[in-house]
């Protein structure tokens, strides 16, 4: 009887762990992004009006050395195109650098691509109809990664 109880407990714990590992990230709203950026000591600005209707929201989280750009677009197709366009920018930076590394992750509508060159850190991450983009000096890489993890993008 004890063996069955222990086995059931182990199976329940394993099931819970596997479910947690397989969870998709959740997209943020513009307000949630701005709040998290402010809490992380970024200066935020809503630049949606400057985008001439191309996006539903554009929020910049700024530090003196770099910024993290957050966008919400109307359709999945727009998000996919924007993600691919930003990946192309990262690949150009990677090709222009003598020393670079890349990291890719995710699938479907939950994607992430990062490039580290000899001078900068670049990242784009998409969740559904939202995406973030940043290009920061290499000296700020860990700070940017830490912020992106709090979102989580």
Notable features of this structure?
alpha+beta, seven-stranded antiparallel β-sheet, 40% helix
What can you see in these coordinates?
The protein is of the alpha+beta class and 153 residues long. The protein has four helices and seven strands; from the N terminus they run ααβββαββββα. It has helices at 2-21, 30-39, 76-96, 141-150, and strands at residues 43-46, 57-63, 66-72, 101-107, 110-116, 120-127, 130-137. A seven-stranded antiparallel sheet has the order 1-2-3-7-6-5-4, with helices on both faces. It is globular and about 40 Å long.
Q: Determine the fraction of residues in helical runs and give it as a percent range.
A: 25-40%
**Strand share of the residues?**
25-35%
Overall pLDDT level: 87
- Straight-line N-to-C gap: 46 Å
Q: How would you write the strand order of the largest sheet?
A: 1-2-3-7-6-5-4
* Low-confidence blocks of residues: 3-22
C-alpha-based Rg, rounded? 19 Å
What letter string, H or E per element, gives the SSE order? HHEEEHEEEEH
**Total helical segments:** 4
């Amino acid at each position: 009887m004890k063996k069955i109880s222990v086995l059931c407990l182990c199976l329940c714990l394993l099931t819970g762990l596997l479910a947690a590992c397989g969870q998709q990230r959740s997209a943020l709203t513009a307000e949630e992004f701005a709040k998290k950026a402010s809490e992380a000591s970024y200066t935020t600005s809503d630049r949606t009006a400057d985008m001439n209707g191309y996006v539903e929201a554009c929020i910049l989280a700024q530090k003196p050395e770099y910024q993290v750009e957050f966008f919400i677009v109307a359709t999945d197709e727009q998000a996919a195109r924007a993600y691919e366009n930003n990946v192309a920018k990262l690949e150009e930076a990677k090709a222009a650098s003598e020393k670079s590394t890349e990291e890719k992750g995710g699938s479907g509508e939950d994607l992430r691509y990062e490039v580290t060159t000899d001078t900068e850190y670049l990242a784009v991450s998409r969740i559904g109809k939202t995406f973030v983009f940043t290009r920061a000096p290499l000296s700020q890489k860990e700070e940017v990664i830490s912020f992106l993890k709090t979102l989580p993008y």
